[in-house]
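Data availability (excerpt). The following record was deposited with the supplementary files.
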Amino acid sequence: MASSRYDEKQTVSLEEGKPVDVLGGYKLTYLGNRPLDTERYGFSVEVDHDNEVYTVMPIIRYSSFTNSMMRHPDILNMVTRDFYVSPVSVETPDQRKEQTLNFKKGETRDVNGMQVTFVDFDFSDTEKGRMVTGGEFTIGVVLEVQSEGKKERLKPLMKNTGGSISYIPAAIAGSAVQFTIAKLQPNREDPSQSSVEIGVTAPGLTSRKPQAETLIVEASIKPFINLVWMGTITLVVGFILTIVRRVEEARQRE
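Predicted structure:
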């Protein structure tokens, strides 16, 4: 509960070779990328904190089977906190552009001539139950896109598999336009105030042209994660000791 309450997040653009300060005390420098296999690319990011330098490698995987991208964060484990670096997108000077836009629930925004509306989250009771029990779960964002007189509903997804987050974009049929979840911001007290950040990738989007390859990441701090593990280990050890004690008491009765 404390980890969830006091976590911090920041989305930042890392131009290759240029350090950027984030979250009050961390300096990130994008060092470049390299292919890990035919579908996965690793992105090296240097993390400078308290005169200690670490290197993390978040991964973006392009699935030729589903024609989609999945993003996997890398985690820096510290004594009092975990530092996550999650890839959002990567830009090159000659690449098609991605804009990241924030939508409130029910809001419609113009995106390169398209009218895009954030309708609602798609998070069923079944998926909520899986999240509560620590299983795999998926959250969708329902978008309504109107273009050239046609309306289409799309649902980009965020999938949690064993604590690893991946993002599955949704594309407009017959086009190169894709929508990807960048950040979920649900409001449990007032669902009408919920919002979401969506990355829109398409040829011709107007954005600042980077001078070098630029990696967009979400940096986040999750405090007291080690306390969760300590609590889990304590429960397991206590459970084992209880079993051993009960077995010994049963033998004494015999």
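Summary of structural features: The first strand starts at residue 8 and ends at 15.
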